[in-house]
Amino acid sequence: MTKQSTPPISVLVLTLNEEANLPRCLESLRWCDDIVVLDSGSSDRTVEIAREHGARVVTRPFDNWASHQNWALESIEYRHLWLYYSDADEVMPPELRDELIQVATASSQPHAAYRVRYKNFFLGRWIRHCGIYPTWVLRFYKPEQVRYERLVNPTAKVDGSIGLLQEHFLHYSFNKGLQAWFDKHNKYSTAEAIETIRDLREGAIDWAGLVDFSNPARRRLALKHMSFRLPFRPLLRFLYMYVLKLGFLDGGPGFHYCMMLSIYEYMIVLKVRELRRRERGESI
Length: 284
Hints:
Elements: E1 9-15, H1 22-27, E2 35-39, H2 46-52, E3 56-59, H3 65-75, E4 82-87, E5 90-91, H4 94-104, E6 113-122, E7 125-126, E8 137-141, E9 146-149, E10 155-158, E11 162-171, H5 178-202, H6 207-210, H7 216-227, H8 233-244, H9 251-279
Parallel strand pairs: 1-2, 1-4, 2-3, 6-11
Antiparallel strand pairs: 4-8, 5-11, 6-7, 6-8, 9-10
């Protein structure tokens, strides 16, 4: 694709020590003339790699996911009307690129944002079952019409209608190794424990959202809020993913993946108990 035919799409990539993932991510985005890397203080070659690939680098200390992503939408000036958001451990296939271009260059546009599915890879295999596919995430939108909520795994509020794209991006969330995955989910579980306590105090189950199959994000959040109130969450999540959602069809990688996410649930449960004991002035 030549410079003259570059589509009117900007790309935002959030990074922190992503030298292992960033080159492949940026290679898949070479068609874009406005790539912005928002870095949170990397100590490896992340920033250098970003600049080598022609990306603009903006730095900001990370506080939490919602405020970090909202800052990126409010404070960074993008060259184009449409913005695609990517994590550094993701790759955009040509088929998805072409679909984004088709949307961005259409003469009329009914939606303010679009959700995209992804294929998650673990131990060399696409984890197709386990209840994680298809997961629809908001990745392509007009920045001024989107804002995020929640400390971790943020949910997007869109001022306008939302469409669905047909193609996928590829997610390699284990490229930095299992230690990095567990380190990240240790941090995530702390934020999820805080959100759990907040929801139990203030929130109510969105019963209508549980059966709103037309809005996958709302249904996903409603299921999460309901899970906060269930006993034996770690065991139930494993059985849900591995048995009910046919995780066993993904072989060994599927089993290990389901076990790891049930461990993640257990970390959240324990941290909720820890926070409550601290609130009561009890020892841990």
